Amino acid sequence: MGQRRRRFSPEFKDEAVKLVESGVSVAEAARQLGLIEQTLRNWVEAHRKKNPKTVVPLSVDERARLRELERENHELRMKNEFLGKAAAFFARDYR
């Protein structure tokens, strides 16, 4: 016969979720509480769906900085791609 299904009180679930949200990994919290990791993950996910965090919109300065960083990131990716092609070209000629 299979094992009986364990039941947990809403208070226990809330405390387990608070433990994860305080910075403890799901795996570590599950070990500490004697739970299966996936069970705790399900509780955390359900809690986050029920209580979404409000996202604070970016200020004008933050948006400008973000655009600047995105532009810089694009330039660096292009340079990296070029250098990779150049290295392949010169490596081919070296042989």
TrEMBL record:
Record's keyword annotation contains Cell inner membrane: no
Pfam families per UniProt: HTH_Tnp_1
A GO molecular function held by the record: DNA binding
InterPro entries reported in the protein's UniProt record: Homeodomain-like_sf, RD_transcriptional_regulator, Transposase_8
Coiled-coil spans in chain: 59-86
Keyword Transmembrane helix: no
Record key words, sorted: Coiled coil
One GO biological process term: DNA transposition
Protein name: Transposase and inactivated derivatives
Natural source organism: Actinokineospora terrae
Organism lineage: Bacteria, Bacillati, Actinomycetota, Actinomycetes, Pseudonocardiales
